[in-house]
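Per reviewer request, we include the raw input and output of the structure prediction for the construct analysed in the revised manuscript.
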Amino acid sequence: MLSENSTFFEKNDYSVLVGKLIKILGFCPKNTVFLKEVFIYSFYKRNFNQNYYLNFQRLEFLGDAVLNSIISYFLCKRFPEKKEGELTQIRSKIVCRRNLNEISKKLTIEDIFFDKSMISDNTLGNILEALIGFIYFEVGYQECEDFVHKKILHTHVNIEKLQNEIFSYKVWIIEWSQKNKFFINFKTFREDKNQNKIIYLSEFTISECGIKTKGRGYSKKKSEEIAAKEAYFIVQKLYKKNT
């Protein structure tokens, strides 16, 4: 529990918080107590409350589902000629963690937290999803859809640019290999520890092209991406006209 004489959540500070939220949301929330518990107390380590953080996770779960629903409908209307797989790829690029983190920064969501020491770039996307979940609880689906369209899709998402961006070199190289009917071989090994950290080695091979690359990282995903990225640049040099 927060002490009554705590100066951290003084009335003036809370007014600043509400003002920043109104600017982001476009409306004044009615349930400010719940909002404060979830988005302030959950990220204030001196008075951390597990129950508040569980509520944050529940809002994040809801916001993720609502966001995917809104974007799915938007893409179906925007691209009536595209197949399910193509729509899924575009949606994945919009809602991927990296993109949501960047959108959160542009929306200045981190400014609603007084204790920024507990907020990292990797959690900003989660906070955006939780905020969308809160909007759904507060004003319903239609207003939530309006928020996503106005504040995210029409302002901070360039779909044409996203379609040409590579968010995963591993996915790109696998799809390219399958398209050209090349056999690919992807292996990942666990190497010795380096300063108490496990190192992973990934090897990627396309025998028909003579492509063989390696990548090392502190996670399987990182090592695979490094190996795939090197293979991608080799493909660009060998098959410029076909890629």
